[in-house]
Amino acid sequence: MKLFKRWRWRALDRALRTDTGCGLPDAALRVNAAPLLAIDLEMTGLDPSTDAIVSIGWVPIDQGAIDLGGASEVGLAADTSRSVGHSATIHGIRDCDRVGGLEPSDALARLTRALAGRIAVFHHAPLDTAFLDRALRREFGTGWRIPWIDTLDWFRRRQADRDDDDAGASTRLDAVREAFGLDERSAHNALDDAISCAEVALVLAAHSRARLLDACKLPRGR
Amino acid sequence: MKSPSPDITRFLHTVAPFSELAPDAVESVAARLRIRYHTRGESLGEFDPPGRDGLFIVRKGAVELLDSSGEILEQRGEGDLFGHGIAFTGDNPGYCVRAAEDCLIWHLGPDDLSGLLQRQPRLASFFEGGPGARLREESLTHARRETLGELELRAPITAEPGNPISECARRMAEHHVSCLPIMEGGQLTGIITDRDLRNRVLARGLDPDTPVREIMTRNPATVSLSGRIEAALVEMMRLGIHHLPVTGNDGTLAAVVSSGDLMRVQSPHPLRLVRDIQRARDASTVADLARRGPRMLAGLANAGAGASEVGRIAGRVTDACTRRLLALAEAELGPPPLEYAWLAFGSQARLEQGLVSDQDNGLLLGETPDSEAAAYFETLATRVCDGLDACGYVFCPGGVMAKGEWRMGFGDWRRRFDGWIREPAPKSVMQSSIFFDMRAVAGSRDLAERLHREVLKQASDSEIFRRFLAAESLGHKPPVGLFRQFVQEHGGKQSKGLNLKKRGVIPIVDLARVRALEGALEVIHTEERIQAAADTGLITTRDADDLIHALKFIADIRLKHQARQLEAGQTPDHLVDPDELSGLHRRYLRSAFGIVSEAQKALALRYLL
């Protein structure tokens, strides 16, 4: 299994290097020393086939330090065929706010540049990676190819190792933050959630000696 | 750069000194932060010399600052800073930092910090100055206080020294003024008032054609237009005058302000209260009037008067009550059979009372009274002490009152002091300390001053007594840390509230007293004692300045706390919940406590304690 993962890592690294000129970090690096990018998406809904990305927030982590200087948030211009609908009540972004957003290809290109040489960090990654994979395929023809750390998954494994079910089944970032003694965040914007996620990643990494290869999930090949 | 995150900016805005910046300036700081997480026990680095690695903010959790030997200097929690020079011991020594709990730390790098300080020079003193500089900055920037300049005073009517008195009097009558500044070559050289015309001209039968320079008061005291209304009032009360020439920023005469002008600004005013008390028909009227005092003093505090001004005015009110009660008692009992002085002790003597105060007083008799005189003074003292109690100056819990045992002849007073000084014991020294803060409120000032001078001399000659006093004064120590939820005490203990009197004011008052006795300094106001100690070289000017600012700050915080309580209908006390204070004030308080600790250490060193 591990052998396969290592092989897969090298394959991704080669592909990225060929296409973008920038590969992956060394899989043997410890998470707390690795270059990471915490990412959060706001979407119009939960279904990647019908819903759209509204905004993307990200913040880099270098050598165990979140660098707010590299933090960014981009809004995506509305696809006229889809509406924000009910999700506006959650993230506060209405259709009319999206008029000034970037073209999806533009926004995704920026995210890709920020990701160069980094590992992605998501809280509850399956949803975000599915949306990103679909959007990247539509815009550029190639899907999501970067290994990622899922803070929710890592947190659950950690609690299971400790026989601690207290955290329950909640996927909410705030539930995890609370378990770590971090403040709840008021935010439902992509950037503040990305920062919150990055802080959770710092806590997890600080209490662990895990290497990237152990901590990361890899995108499936096609 | 725009702020990345509203959450980050919001928290940063609660952290001093960033709380003092405009919102967009806070955002640009937030955009430059790096966030790190440290587990308990982890080292966060060595800051020696401090200030090279930028600034760190505790976002969550707590850290310990340690000296080179590993001794814990201080603990800092959420919203606190480290990394910059921290004056633990007067200078800015290096220190190490360790996570006391798991913690999230925000870091502003050295380049970003120096860029920020260049754009915001006001912040520089916060980081670079010692705690004293910090407190001075506070008094400059946070005092929103009414100045004389806001009073719209009229341009003054003036005369020249060569003008005949009669012409001056006509001018005063014509313009309905009761005071006339005398100007020579554009400079103020003297002043005359209605009273001068009566006392110096009419009463003496002086020729009205005499030039006014013959009778004018030369080089009168002045106040500045930018000076504060309360300060002008205090100055008038101190000098016993009702007019003060006001100078503009260029030093030239801008106006004359009268006590009436000042009283119109704030009515009812303690100055008027003092006058009414002086005229009160009986003891119960004195009490009714005096009970309005605390509210008026709170009003002054809310209008921006500082603790040292309020203390002086509070003292005048107490003095007025005491004098009136004495006069009323004497009117009934007949003239006193002996020369006497009514002595105030402690905070009343020092003119440092808060909004409420108990009474500490004594009666000094010119000689040991016979039984008849003793009975007279016992009745007199009882009347006055009971009267003061009715005024709200409750009986002294320690029993230091003229109606108790503290009523005796000069020789007996002298022997009491002699006993304390010659055979000091911790208990007696502690009890005796307030007697060294002594002031004659009524009666023979000479008698009181003689006693004060003699005991000062004796105390100053007795190193052993002062050593006891110094040891006692170190009994009240300021806390080591101040957090939103609790006060960090010595030895790791935590407590909820902070007694600003015991932990802040008294340590400074005690320090100043020891120094005053050391140098046989006759002044008794704590700020004046500290200043005099510096003037005579007992402490450095810098330390004196720091201590005075620390006292002013702590006393101001206490005063505002008491004023708030009074307005809420509560009985004022000295116990402040740290959560009641802004983050900035907690930080300044910590600086003030640091100054007190340092001064205590210096005292301990001086007396080998």
Describe this structure in words.
Chain A has 222 residues and is of the alpha/beta class. Chain A is built from eight helices and six strands, in the order αββββααβαβαααα. Chain A starts with a helix and ends in a 7-residue tail after the last helix. Chain B folds into four domains: 6-129, Jelly Rolls, CATH 2.60.120.10; 148-263, CBS-domain (Roll), CATH 3.10.580; 270-458, Beta Polymerase, domain 2; 469-606, Four Helix Bundle (Hemerythrin (Met), subunit A), CATH 1.20.120. Chain B is globular and about 85 Å long. The model of chain B is unreliable at 140-144 (pLDDT under 50). The interface between A and B is medium-sized, with 28 and 21 residues. β3 (65-67) of chain A pairs antiparallel with β1 of chain B.
Order of helices and strands of chain A: HEEEEHHEHEHHHH
- CATH topology of chain A: the name is Nucleotidyltransferase, domain 5
Kindly give the count of domains of chain A: 1
Structural class of chain A, by secondary structure, is alpha/beta
Approximate shape of chain A: globular
The total count of helices of chain A amounts to: 8
Oligomer: heterodimer
- CATH architectural arrangement of chain A: 2-Layer Sandwich
Decide which structural class fits the backbone of chain B: alpha+beta
What is the CATH-assigned architecture of the largest domain in chain B? 2-Layer Sandwich
Strand content of chain A: 5-15%
Instruction: Describe the main β-sheet of chain A briefly.
Output: 6 strands, mixed
Estimated helix fraction of chain A: 40-55%
CATH C-level class of the largest domain in chain B is Alpha Beta
Radius of gyration of chain B: 28 Å
